[in-house]
């Protein structure tokens, strides 16, 4: 299927690895010009080289910290006429409410709520003026099914979901859609981090940790980043222009609710 986005410009935040990288790869495969982002220049250069080798696509890089005004300004300046924006950021650490003082809360909300919203704020008016835009937020399955140790993630990303739902109504009239991708147990460095945490806490092997993680998924396996990237590319497509304000879960069928 031709997704109708060849030649579109995409800005993918936090994309030197993991789900951001997967989204960048999928958009490049559809003929988009993609700007990828990270804080480590060497790592970002390696990611760009890998993407070019895999897709033959047009990859630009911008070294910037999403958590700072300067970094967000650099991101927007690198691709001010972005047709597609994929927001992403590292998730906050797991824990319990007693672990989270005010500073921890502020840091989590800065990363999961304020950083993406402030980038959207800058790019959305230009998308609306051009009558085309696709905004995809990489959030988390914890938005709809919070887990006791993931309260920081749930809170910040649920806030982002609410704000984006509110602004999606007006944006839709200008062919700008805003949707969220909710991953659960995708096979990325984030899951390796979680596996290492289980190894330390439970005294188990890496294989045992991964087996436990997969056992909690209805599909009995971890999700593949390429599957996630493909979903992102479709939501950015011309065919998806009537889909906005939605939360698409990529969780191997694990969510138990109806809506």
How does this structure look, described?
By secondary structure, this protein is an alpha/beta fold. It has 2 domains: 204 residues, Rossmann fold, CATH 3.40.50.720; 36 residues, no CATH class. A 7-stranded parallel β-sheet has the order 3-2-1-4-5-6-7, with helices on both faces. α3 packs parallel to α4, α4 runs parallel beside α5 and α6 packs across α7. The protein starts with 8 loop residues before the first strand and ends in a 9-residue tail after the last strand. The mean pLDDT is 96.
Summarize the structure in short:
By secondary structure, this protein is α/β, with parallel strands linked by helices.
Q: Compute the number of structural domains.
A: 2
State the CATH superfamily name of the largest domain. Answer: NAD(P)-binding Rossmann-like Domain
Helix and strand succession? EHEHEHEHEHEHHHE
Mean pLDDT: 96
> What would CATH call the class of the largest domain?
Alpha Beta
> How far apart are the first and last residues' alpha carbons, in Å?
28 Å
State the share of residues found in helices, binned by percent: 40-55%
The rough form would be described as: globular
Instruction: Give the second-level CATH assignment, the architecture of the largest domain.
Output: 3-Layer(aba) Sandwich
Report the uncertain regions. Answer: none
Regarding quaternary structure, how should these chains be classified? single chain
Strand order of the largest sheet: 3-2-1-4-5-6-7
Question: How much beta, percentage-wise?
Answer: 5-15%
Q: Helix count?
A: 8
Instruction: Kindly name the structural category.
Output: alpha/beta
CATH topology of the largest domain: Rossmann fold
Cα Rg = 18 Å
- Report the major sheet: 7 strands, parallel
User: Strand tally, please?
Assistant: 7
């Amino acid at each position: 299927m031709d997704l109708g986005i060849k030649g579109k410009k995409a800005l993918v935040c936090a994309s030197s690895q993991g789900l951001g990288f997967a989204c960048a790869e999928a958009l490049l495969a559809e003929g988009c010009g993609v700007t990828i982002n990270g804080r480590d220049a060497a790592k970002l250069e390696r990611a760009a080289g890998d993407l070019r080798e895999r897709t033959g696509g047009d990859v630009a890089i911008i070294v910037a910290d999403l958590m700072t005004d300067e970094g967000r300004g650099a991101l927007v300046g690198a691709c001010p006429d972005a047709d597609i924006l994929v927001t992403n950021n590292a998730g906050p650490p797991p824990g319990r409410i007693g672990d989270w003082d005010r500073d921890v809360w502020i840091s989590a909300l800065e990363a999961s709520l304020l950083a993406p919203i402030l980038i959207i704020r800058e790019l959305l008016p230009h998308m609306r003026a051009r009558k085309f835009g696709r905004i995809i937020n990489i959030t988390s399955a914890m938005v709809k099914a919070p887990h006791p140790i993931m309260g920081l993630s749930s809170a910040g990303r649920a806030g982002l979901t609410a704000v984006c739902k509110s602004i999606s109504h007006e944006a839709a009239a200008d062919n700008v859609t805003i949707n969220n991708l909710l991953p659960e147990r995708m096979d990325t460095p984030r899951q390796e981090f979680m596996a290492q945490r289980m190894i330390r806490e439970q005294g188990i092997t890496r294989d045992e940790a991964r087996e436990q993680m997969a056992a909690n998924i209805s599909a009995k396996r971890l999700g593949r980043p390429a599957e996630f990237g493909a979903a992102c590319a479709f939501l950015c497509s011309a065919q998806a222009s009537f889909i906005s304000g939605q939360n698409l879960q990529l969780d191997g069928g694990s969510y138990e609710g109806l809506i």
